[in-house]
Amino acid sequence: xxxxxxxxxxxxxxxxxxxxxxxxxxxxxxxxxxxxxxxxxxxxxxxxxxxxxxxxxxxxxxxxx
Length: 65
Hints:
The protein is mainly α. It has three helices and two strands. It has a single domain (6-64), classed as Arc Repressor Mutant, subunit A (Orthogonal Bundle). 49% of the residues lie in helices and 8% in strands. Strands 1-2 form a two-stranded antiparallel ribbon.
């Protein structure tokens, strides 16, 4: 199991928060649409935006297995 850590410090969103927000998304079709879905649940990357690329990387990592 992956170690939990804070990804978005502005909104206190962790790796596990992002993974949980992806629960139920079985297909990896478009990382940007999944990013929007994660953002709606967690509000990550709505503060300073500094975590944007890291969130995209985590979504790709999780969905690619």
